[in-house]
Write a structure and sequence with these properties.
Elements lengths: L8 E4 L7 E3 L4 H10 L5 E2 L10 E5 L7 E4 L21 H15 L5 E5 L9 E6 L2 E6 L15 E5 L6 H7 L2 E9 L2 E10 L3 E3 L8 E2 L5 E2 L1 H15 L16 H14 L2 H14 L5 H45 L2 H8 L13 H45 L3 H35 L4 H18 L5 H14 L6 H6 L32 H17 L6 H8 L8 H13 L10 H6 L1 H14 L8 H18 L4
Parallel strand pairs: 8-9, 9-10
Antiparallel strand pairs: 1-2, 1-3, 3-4, 4-5, 6-7, 7-8, 10-11, 11-12, 13-14
Length: 633
């Protein structure tokens, strides 16, 4: 049974790790990913809501590449609730990766805690303790934040977590986080949402600080507080009397205009622009030029602000129209998304009674959905506790089951080794029958031995190997009149027309003699064998190019003959009842299989089919046996 789950996130090194990683979906990118993380194990992390089992990378040819669980020894998939979880399922772990160095640079020693509650899914809440204060990152949009909880500290919301208009107006601001994918990592961006304005994401994390009260200070919050303070300090406007008004310093007036525009204080800009226009008649020359330029700058800024206000006004009504439709249809997800975006962009345009009714209906719908979700989660938790109790009872009731399973596995392993030896015997006998000139009696004896070994090997034989056994058995079962011809001439090559000329026996080249390989290739063979063992454990094929990239200087540039000598040495130490590790190269590179794998099989005394399709069948069977034998080594 295959693993149909497509898990995109994992953690490194051990199940309790909080160091996340994203699996590339592209097959070629996955190849580079495997090289980059060579020797590192991947796990279905408990902090991701996973089962804690080890994962492998699975290269997708039709589907996207992804992480997958190692199969259970009994052929069953491990119990795991992470099905089709996207890359965002690890965002709470990337909070630590994004903020730890930043906080330490400010002299803080942050401590992270991933809160696990019955009412909140895994990854919903990340608590950062800084100097005795708390930053609470709230990631789950379906779980409403508790703004009035004792010791809640600074609450930071995910990009889709809603906040009602009353709470936002009372607090004055709220910070938000969002994540985007960059390669195999997720990058965090920080923003600040203000009432009637929306969320400003246009600053870097390095521009922010955490003050002595544990409050997160961003450039947006700093500007907002400065504008409010300036508004409070601004004197009340009085009717202007051009006859009694004293002289105004033009230089100071122009500077005040530019400052007000930079600080975006609308009331001050309007007042200073009117003052400047009153001074135009008494100015001339360069002073008039400076004053007029300041007036134009203020006008352009006000026109731009008015245009933005108009756009926000239109967006405001579009959002409320969409929200009203979503509430009427009962679409909870759409309502939750819209509630995080709806805000009145114009201070002069208060929310109407109709719009307040829409907001109240939306809040009621989300509250009902949250209660239903809590009830559903409670039922699931109760069912999980019941299953755990049943497993505990069964474990106590059958203490000897593991021992019995271990004995069964040992017996199965011995039977597997016996079948492997039988298959190797079939290959060696087939090679002798094909290459050597034997008498009819010798042929009959070898065919009988081969037939017994084939029955013992069973389904380990490839289709090509089974076909050759049947052909030899059928050939010797012909009437006696044909035996004289068999004794006089060697058997023709299998799977070829009877009229074809006898096959010329290949010359035994020096390359196929392992004892003649140069001594310097010994260390290269050891490195290649180690890499092939790793590929076998990961259940993946490989190629010579990939081995060069993986081993680096340990695998120098070799000629074709030297490569074959190396692979002969690699499998010279392979037991007779085990498949060749070099079959992983043949399975991953068909050109290698057709050109060189035959020479390796011949040098090691194994049968090498003449037909390319039969050879491919043998290679696939050998590679699958390698995966089976090395699964738990």
């Amino acid at each position: 049974m295959g693993d149909t789950r497509q898990i995109q996130t994992a953690v490194l090194a051990h199940p309790e790790s909080d160091d996340p990683v994203v699996c590339p979906t592209d097959a070629e990118e996955l190849d580079e990913f495997r090289v980059e993380y060579f020797g590192v194990s991947f796990w279905c992390g408990v902090l991701l809501g996973g089962c804690g089992g080890q994962l492998l990378t699975r290269r997708g040819n039709v589907r996207v590449s992804h992480f997958a669980h190692f199969p259970d020894p009994e052929g069953l998939l491990p119990e795991c609730g992470r099905r089709s979880r996207g890359v965002a399922s690890a965002d709470h772990l990337y909070v630590r990766a994004a903020t730890q160095a930043w906080l330490r640079g400010q002299g803080h020693t942050p401590r992270y805690r991933y809160i696990d509650r019955d009412q909140a899914p895994v990854g919903s809440l990340v608590e950062i303790e800084v100097g005795g204060h708390t930053l609470l990152v709230h990631m789950d949009r379906t779980t409403p934040p508790d703004w009035d909880a004792q010791g809640a500290g600074e609450v930071i919301l995910g990009s889709g977590v809603p906040i009602d208009r009353g709470t936002l107006g009372r607090r004055g601001y709220v910070h938000r986080v969002r994540f985007v994918s960059e390669g195999t990592r997720r990058v965090m961006t920080l923003g600040t949402e203000l009432p009637h304005v929306g969320t400003d994401w246009g600053f870097d994390l390095t521009d922010c600080t955490v003050d002595e009260h544990g409050r997160l200070i961003t450039p947006v919050l700093t500007r907002h507080r400065a504008a409010r303070a300036a508004k409070k300090r601004a004197p009340a406007s009085r009717p202007r009397d051009t006859k009694t008004q004293g002289r105004v310093q033009i230089g100071a007036l122009t500077r005040d205009i530019y400052t007000a525009v930079r600080e975006k204080t609308t009331t001050a800009v309007k007042r200073l622009q009117q003052t400047a226009q009153l001074q135009v008649p008494r100015c001339e020359g360069q002073a008039l030029e400076y004053l007029q330029r300041a007036i134009d700058h203020a006008s352009n800024w006000r026109d731009h602000e008015n245009k933005l206000m108009d756009q926000q006004y239109q967006a405001h009504h579009r959002f409320f129209t969409a929200l009203e439709g979503a509430v009427r249809r009962g679409h909870v997800d759409a309502v939750s998304t819209l509630m995080s975006k709806v805000a009145s962009p114009l201070e002069r345009n208060d929310t109407s009674e109709h719009e307040m009714g829409i907001l109240q209906a939306a809040d009621a719908l989300l509250g009902q959905a949250a209660r239903q979700r809590q009830q559903r989660d409670a039922r699931r938790a109760a069912a999980a506790r019941e299953r755990e109790a049943r497993r505990t009872t069964q474990a106590h009731a059958r203490p000897s089951r593991r021992a019995a399973t271990a004995r069964e596995r040992e017996v199965q392993a011995q039977e597997q080794k016996a079948r492997n030896r039988a298959r190797g015997q079939v290959q060696r006998i087939t090679g002798r029958l094909r290459r050597e000139e034997l008498s009819a009696v010798q042929q009959k004896q070898l065919v009988e031995e081969m037939q017994v070994a084939a029955e013992q090997a069973g389904n380990l034989l490839s289709a090509a190997e089974k076909r050759k056994v049947d052909q030899w058995v059928e050939r010797l079962a012909t009437p006696e009149e044909g035996q004289d011809a068999v004794e006089q001439t060697p058997p023709p090559a299998l799977d070829r027309p009877a009229a074809a000329p006898p096959r010329v026996q290949p010359r035994q080249e020096a390359i196929t003699e392992p004892t003649k390989s140069p001594a310097r290739l010994g260390s290269v063979a050891a490195a290649v064998r180690g890499a092939l063992k790793k590929a076998a454990r990961e259940r993946t094929t490989t190629s010579w190019k990939r081995l060069q990239h993986q081993l680096g200087s340990a695998l120098p540039s070799l000629s074709t003959d030297e490569r074959v000598r190396v692979l002969i040495q690699v499998d010279q130490s392979t037991a007779a009842d085990e498949p060749l590790l070099s079959s992983l190269l043949a399975a991953g590179d068909p050109h290698f299989a057709y050109q060189y794998y035959r020479r390796i099989l011949t040098a090691l005394g194994l049968d090498a089919p003449d037909d390319d399709e039969d050879l491919r069948d043998v290679v696939e069977a050998d590679a699958e046996r390698v995966f089976t034998d090395w699964r738990f080594r």
